[in-house]
Amino acid sequence: MIKAGIIGATGYAGAELVRLLLGHREVEIKWYGSRSYIDEKYAKVYGNMFQLVEEACLGDNLQELAGQVDVIFTATPQGFLAGALTEEILEHAKVVDLSADYRLKDVKVYEEWYKIKHQSPQFLEEAVYGLCEVNRDKVKHARLVANPGCYTTCSILTAYPLAKEGLIDVNTLIVDAKSGTSGAGRGAKLPNLFCEVNENMKAYGVASHRHTPEIEEQLGYAAGETVTINFTPHLVPMNRGILATEYASLKKIKQADGTYAYPSYEQVRAAYDKYYQKEYFIRVLDQGVYPETKWVEGSNFVDIGFQIDGRTGRIILMGAIDNLVKGAAGQAVQNMNLLFGFPEQEGLRLVPMFP
Q1: How far apart are the first and last CA of the chain?
Q2: In the structure, what pLDDT confidence band is assigned to residue 185 with cuts at 50, 70 and 90?
Q3: Cβ neighbours of 143 (radius 10 Å)
Q4: Which of 78, 115, 181, 268 is the one with CA 20 to 30 A from 341?
Q5: How much is the average pLDDT of 69-85?
Q6: Tell me: the pLDDT tens digits for 266-286?
């Protein structure tokens, strides 16, 4: 049994961490951190935790927390952990950070896209990007895990095998993604009010969304080249879920007869199977079946489908996740399982909820 602490436990991602960890057989939550609700009962903030969590919320003192737990989850705004993390903290506890503070290796790129100065760039090199299906072996030996973003998790995993195998021109990639409103957090914001969101769909962060360099960096590692993409997120009137529809030009590959042609369905499917056939949380759908957010809601699954457009020589890729589970808290728990040698699915064998 290990002890866990959560900073930012009253945000949506933090609350999802609480829900998942309460069902984990190897973890005890010792610290429900929330700057906004110090000394208030956690179950008063989230009524679904009535008689499940008796503890009150504590503050965000990482130094004190590190002396009491084995793992710290920080579900906090960008800049918090970078301004508080020390070597002493990492010597006492492993840290899984759900913000973007350690996802990007180039501090200049981070500061350009997030518009804040990075306070602890000395930890960037050792931080492991916690996309479990790609960096599993590195995560196992880490002290500091940078939990990927929700859009990025969906976008990267959907395209990763094709980028890795050189089946697409990654610099032609266009990612058109839609997210439910929980992705914007629990803070009161005018654009997220019911009357603003209901019966509406809108693009935002056009050509400027902060997840863009994260997708580019990770797909660049896969493809072995510098990658530049178009990424456009949209807000849709639902609580949970992300659907990413991605478009890219196929590369012609050498066939058995020595000629070059665009890859067939079977060749694309073989690329996905090569990387994902043994991945419990990634479900590559049957031919002609495309992902829907309702079939992954409340789960840690990633559903992926694709369609080759022979007329244009392009491929349409589709991926769906629950933004609060695989896109945040579920992936964080998956990373924790790797860090401590637990079965990777422990606490995450969640059947998607429907309706």
Answers
A1: 34
A2: confident
A3: 16
A4: 78
A5: 97
A6: 999 999 999 999 999 999 999
3-state secondary structure of 214: helix
Buried b (16+ CB within 10 A) or exposed e, 188-211: eeeebeeeebeeeeeeeeeeebbb
CATH number for the region 151-323 comes to: 3.30.360.10
Q: Which CATH superfamily is domain 2-126 in?
A: NAD(P)-binding Rossmann-like Domain (3.40.50.720)
Query: Which residues are CB-contacts of 256 (< 8 A; sequence separation ≥ 6)?
Result: none
What ranges do the domains of the chain cover?
2-126, 151-323
Q: What is the pTM of this model?
A: 0.96
- Separation CA 86–CA 115 (nearest Å): 22
| Whole-number pLDDT of residue 186 | 85
Torsion on CA atoms 130, 134, 137, 141, rounded to nearest 10: -10
Q: Which residues have C-beta within 8 Å of that of residue 139, sequence separation ≥ 6?
A: 128, 130, 132, 145, 335, 338, 339
**Distance (Å, rounded) from C-alpha 86 to C-alpha 164?**
35
Residue 85: its pLDDT value, please?
98
355: buried, middle or exposed (CB in 10 Å: 19+, 13-18, 0-12)? exposed
Task: Extract the tokens encoding 243.
Answer: 């659907």
Query: Which tokens in the block code for residue 147?
Result: 């939990």
Distance CA 354, CA 258 (A): 48
Distance CA 282, CA 319 (A): 10
Question: Residue 229 has which token pair?
Answer: 């993409």
- Greatest CA separation for the chain: 72
At 17 the three-state DSSP class reads helix
Among the listed residues 321, 318, 229, 225, the one whose alpha carbon sits nearest the alpha carbon of residue 268: 318
Paired sense of beta strands 27-33 and 2-7, if any: parallel
Both tokens of 264, joined, read 């067939």
Q: Could you tell me how far CA 69 lies from the centroid of its own chain?
A: 24
Within 10 angstroms of residue 87's Cβ, the number of other Cβ atoms is 10
* Residue 229 and residue 152 in contact, taking contact as beta carbons nearer than 8 Å: no
Two structure tokens written together for 222: 């896969």
Active site (catalytic) residues: 150
Measured in residues, the chain has a length of 355
